[in-house]
């Protein structure tokens, strides 16, 4: 095992989420789009933050191999919560941009980073993910 963390939430989407080490505690709230107050954070936001950061590290690790400046990279992660007749489901879009970079090199980098990022591995074949270079 390389690392372990643990969080506890009381009150679900309108509760409070706390890391067990006490270093982060967040008020959670259902988004206004779903009829909530929007006066807190939601799981989709936290997932997008975590995935963009993790994916950014994969980009940093691989950028030099692709002849790109990983320090200049900007990684975006859009997470959508969709609803069908019976339940909810996620989908995501990862975006990668490096000012002045060749789009072909960027495409190769985003595809390789998607293969090694732990969030990408965890979601592979579970949710639709779009890779976009800008």
TrEMBL record:
Signal peptide: none annotated. Belongs to the OsmC/Ohr family. It holds the Pfam family OsmC. GO terms for biological process: response to oxidative stress. This is Peroxiredoxin, Ohr subfamily. SUPFAM superfamilies: OsmC-like. InterPro entries: KH_dom-like_a/b, OHR, OsmC/Ohr_fam, OsmC/Ohrsf. The lineage of its organism: Bacteria, Pseudomonadati, Pseudomonadota, Alphaproteobacteria, Hyphomicrobiales.
């Amino acid at each position: 095992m390389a690392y372990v963390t643990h969080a506890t939430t009381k009150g679900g989407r309108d509760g409070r989420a706390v890391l067990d080490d006490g270093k982060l505690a967040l008020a959670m709230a259902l988004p206004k789009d779903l009829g909530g107050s929007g006066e807190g954070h939601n799981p989709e936001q936290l997932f997008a933050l975590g995935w963009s950061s993790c994916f950014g590290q994969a980009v940093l690790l691989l950028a030099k191999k692709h002849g790109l400046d990983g320090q200049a990279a900007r990684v975006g992660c859009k997470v959508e919560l969709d609803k069908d007749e019976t339940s909810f489901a996620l989908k995501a879009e990862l975006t990668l941009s490096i000012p002045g970079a060749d789009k072909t090199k960027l495409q190769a980098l985003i595809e390789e980073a998607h293969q090694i990022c732990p969030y990408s591995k965890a979601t592979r074949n579970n949710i639709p993910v779009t890779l976009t270079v800008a």
